[in-house]
Amino acid sequence: MMNDSFSSRKREVIQRISACFFCVLLLGGTIFSVGCGKQQMGENTLVLGKDGNIDEYLVEEFPIDLYDIDEWENDCKVQIEAYNNEAKKEAVTLSDVGLMDSVLRCTLHYESDDAYFGFNRIPLYYGTISDAVTAGYSLLVPVNDVKSNAPVTSEELLNMKNKHICICSEPVNVVTYKKVKYLSEGASLGEDGKTVTVEGDKTVYIVFE
């Protein structure tokens, strides 16, 4: 299990140097490269890949007067290496670390939702509805059709076995590779039909092809 200094970075990127702790705030307006194009990512964002992988884009204000970016990056790599050694595979990788105008930008790649949870200790599921049921997730939750806003019954949801679902419990943007079909309360869908903004700490269910 990773130590809490890195795993709680969604709300407070806490890195230890001589017992000092640094709170990091979200900052908007940064452009990250996603796939072949450019996508605006003004907040921490999870991008769901077709083969079950997850890319996490972090955009955060960095206390350059208190902390050195090279030490921060080294701390991250040490913890990632420790996790990968424990997992016996390259489950998590860090890339694109940059610092400009006191803004930290980096990308974390996870081979699966298990790697995301194992490294961050933050609940997340991404897979088919059938696999979610097999894994023990209860899908007795109200979701609505994003076009008509009509409610979908739990029975109807369970019958969508091959559709994909993301179950997220943290305030973050989630980008799917297919248009979102159904969405629970506590989140809003962007104009592109693929970007979901999870609001607060409520567990949100995102269903897509």
Tell me the layout of helices and strands.
Blueprint: H1 4-7, E1 30-34, E2 37-41, E3 45-48, E4 54-61, H2 69-87, E5 92-100, E6 103-110, H3 113-120, E7 124-128, H4 129-134, E8 143-145, E9 151-152, H5 154-158, E10 164-168, E11 173-175, E12 180-184, E13 187-189, E14 195-198, E15 204-208
Parallel strand pairs: 3-11
Antiparallel strand pairs: 1-2, 3-4, 4-6, 5-6, 7-10, 8-9, 8-12, 10-15, 11-14, 12-15, 13-14
Output the keywords:
209 residues, alpha+beta, 2 domains, 7-stranded mixed sheet, 6-stranded antiparallel sheet, 5 helices, 20% helix, globular, disordered N terminus
Overview of the molecule:
- The protein is built from five helices and 15 strands.
- It has helices spanning 4-7, 69-87, 113-120, 129-134, 154-158; strands spanning 30-34, 37-41, 45-48, 54-61, 92-100, 103-110, 124-128, 143-145, 151-152, 164-168, 173-175, 180-184, 187-189, 195-198, 204-208.
- It folds into two domains: 4-120, no CATH class; 124-208, no CATH class.
- Strand 3 (45-48) and strand 4 form a beta hairpin.
The arrangement of helices and strands along the chain is HEEEEHEEHEHEEHEEEEEE
Fraction of residues in H or I helices: 10-25%
Distance between the termini: 33 Å
Give the strand line-up of the largest sheet.
Answer: 5-6-4-3-11-14-13
Quick one: overall form?
globular
**Gyration radius, in Å:** 18 Å
What is the mean predicted local confidence, pLDDT?
83
Q: Could you tell me the strand content as a percent range?
A: 35-45%
Number of helices: 5
Low-confidence stretches: 1-40
- Report the major sheet: 7 strands, mixed
Total strand segments: 15
Number of domains: 2
Q: What class do helices, strands and sheet pairing give?
A: alpha+beta
